[in-house]
Specification:
By secondary structure, this protein is α/β, with parallel strands linked by helices. The protein is built from nine helices and five strands; from the N terminus they run βαβαααβαβαααβα. Strands 2-3-1-4-5 form a five-stranded parallel β-sheet, sandwiched between helices. It binds adenosine-5'-diphosphate.
């Protein structure tokens, strides 16, 4: 199994690059943002509870997303590996993920961290808001709240994986192809190492 985390602030291109990486490497895509949005669309109790946080640009409580990821891992026993996108977003989530993977006899191979300037992030998110139908992309205040949550709670997740020498920074600006090639090079070098 080859498991990776695609890491970076909101708007750094995790969704776009994830789509390509899963098809190149045959991984199962686990995006907590997508999973939460589908719970909201299905009007489940979990979705209803998550929505109030998401609408404010705040993180959904750890136990909710951890439980969601735990079920997703159990529901995909034949996967070759997982690409985690938007998860883990706190140190508690990172520790829970490590534990879940250990129970399955596997681990995170690499954390690919996309780096994008703050100015570019806001520009991309507002632009995405024009077409994505995501209410959290339209309002500049909600966008700023999401970036602040990232800086306050999520950036530290990189430090957790740095302890195990698993973090590689990749420039998240440039063409989609350039970024994809840079990410692929890093995966290839870890896969054969
Ligand atoms: P983006 O990375 O563009 O901000 P996502 O689709 O990953 O968007 O997430 C949208 C929202 O869903 C977040 O702002 C947050 O409220 C919630 N969310 C997603 N993943 C998590 C997570 N792992 N922990 C807590 N909240 C999450």
């Amino acid at each position: 199994m080859f498991n990776l985390i695609l890491f970076g602030p909101p708007g750094s291109g995790k969704g776009t690059q994830s789509e390509r990486l899963i098809s190149k490497y045959g991984l199962k895509h686990l995006s907590t943002g997508d999973l939460l949005r589908s719970e909201i669309a299905g009007q489940t109790p979990l979705g209803m509870a998550a929505r109030s946080y998401m609408d404010k640009g705040q993180l959904v409580p750890d136990e909710v997303v951890i439980e969601m990821i735990s079920s997703a891992l159990d529901n995909n026993p034949q996967a070759n590996g997982f690409l985690f996108d938007g998860f883990p977003r706190t140190n508690a989530q990172a520790e829970a993920l490590d534990k879940l993977l250990t129970q399955k006899g596997t681990e995170i191979a690499i954390v690919l961290a996309l780096q994008v300037s703050q100015k570019e992030l806001v520009k991309r998110l507002l632009n995405r808001g024009l077409t994505s139908g995501r209410s959290d992309d339209v309002d500049e205040e909600i966008i700023s709240a999401r970036i602040a949550e990232y800086e306050m709670k999520t950036a530290a997740v990189a430090d957790h994986y740095k302890k195990y020498d698993k973090v590689v920074y990749v420039k998240g600006e440039g063409t989609i192809d350039e970024i994809f090639d840079a990410l692929s090079d890093e995966i290839d070098s870890r896969k054969t190492a």
